[in-house]
């Protein structure tokens, strides 16, 4: 069964828009776990637009106490600044089950592309080694059309996370056949070199089942924006359970 890791960034966005502590990120994470989610994902950014470093520490304690996987996403090349110690120091302190490396910049509204291994592979290699020394499984955010997926394995990654935004767009437009073939091919190429396959970005209850029917052996989906949006209408418990039924 594909595992569901709920990204709680959007809870922090709403909290930060007003200040204070409501809605409470920890309470939301607990509700997701109580409903059966297999893990919690966060993507702290240097500009602190949503999840803060303090949230990462609190969520680490929660997931550790529950025996649940914690996945920290982020740009390993982003330098530390006030309020953000950097991705590797956060992982060293919290020892998440998984670290997902994403090449996003401050100016991006959201993650919208994967790594270019021709440019980034050798810079990533020592960072992956450091993360693995902390006990983290390492996943790299990639585009389905990337021709160099074998490089991810060569530099020490355990998994890739397929950036599913283009698939979601095609599905919404009514014809995702070509995209599904592209993603299925990417998954098979990754698995052929020993990489596990995760997926995430703009997956929803509308498009998830079609994706998982077409793309083989997806180990984990990380879902935040759509899940939290749907939960505004149906509640977190019902929404998480809806995703688990699809999985």
Question: Can you walk through the features of this model?
Answer:
This protein has 247 residues and is an alpha/beta fold. It is globular. The protein has one domain: TIM Barrel (Alpha-Beta Barrel), CATH 3.20.20. The protein contains 11 helices and 8 strands. An 8-stranded parallel β-barrel has the order 1-2-3-4-5-6-7-8, surrounded by 6 helices. α2 (25-34) runs parallel beside α3, α7 runs antiparallel to α8 and α10 crosses α11. The record marks 161 as: Transition state stabilizer. Its main location: cytoplasm. This is Pyridoxine 5'-phosphate synthase. GO terms for molecular function: pyridoxine 5'-phosphate synthase activity. Catalyzes the complicated ring closure reaction between the two acyclic compounds 1-deoxy-D-xylulose-5-phosphate (DXP) and 3-amino-2-oxopropyl phosphate (1-amino-acetone-3-phosphate or AAP) to form pyridoxine 5'-phosphate (PNP) and inorganic phosphate.
Order of helices and strands: EHHEHEHEHEHEHHEHEHH
**Tell me, what is the CATH class?**
Alpha Beta
Query: What is the average of the pLDDT values?
Result: 96
Distance between the termini: 6 Å
**DSSP strand tally:** 8
Strand order of the largest sheet: 1-2-3-4-5-6-7-8
Put simply, the count of helices is 11
Structural class assignment: alpha/beta
Helix content: 40-55%
Strand percentage = 15-25%
Unreliable stretches covering 5 or more consecutive residues: none
Q: What is CATH's topology name? A: TIM Barrel
Largest sheet: 8 strands, parallel, barrel
Catalytic activity: 3-amino-2-oxopropyl phosphate + 1-deoxy-D-xylulose 5-phosphate = pyridoxine 5'-phosphate + phosphate + 2 H2O + H(+)
Family: Belongs to the PNP synthase family.
Active site: 43, 73, 201
Subcellular location: Cytoplasm
């Amino acid at each position: 069964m594909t595992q569901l890791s709920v990204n709680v960034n959007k809870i922090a966005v709403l909290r930060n828009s007003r200040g204070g502590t409501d809605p409470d990120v920890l309470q939301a994470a607990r509700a997701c776990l109580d409903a059966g989610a297999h893990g919690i994902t966060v993507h702290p950014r240097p500009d602190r637009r949503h999840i803060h470093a303090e949230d990462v520490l609190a969520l680490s304690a929660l997931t550790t106490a529950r025996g649940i996987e914690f996945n920290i996403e982020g740009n390993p090349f982003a330098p530390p600044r006030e309020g953000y110690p950097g991705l590797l120091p956060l992982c060293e302190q919290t020892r998440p089950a998984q670290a997902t490396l994403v090449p996003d910049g401050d100016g991006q509204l959201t993650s919208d592309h994967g790594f270019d291994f021709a440019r980034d592979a050798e810079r990533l290699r020592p960072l992956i080694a450091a993360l693995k020394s902390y006990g983290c499984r390492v996943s790299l955010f990639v585009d389905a059309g990337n021709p160099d997926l074998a490089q991810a394995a060569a530099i020490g990654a355990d998994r890739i996370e397929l950036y599913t935004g283009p698939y979601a767009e095609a599905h919404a437009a009514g014809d995702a056949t070509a995209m599904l073939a592209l993603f299925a091919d990417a998954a098979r190429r990754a698995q052929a070199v020993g990489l596990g396959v995760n997926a995430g970005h703009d997956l929803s209850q509308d498009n998830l089942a079609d994706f998982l029917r077409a793309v083989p052996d997806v180990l984990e989906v990380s879902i935040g924006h759509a899940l939290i949006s749907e939960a505004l209408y149906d509640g977190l418990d019902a929404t998480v359970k809806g995703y688990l039924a699809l999985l």
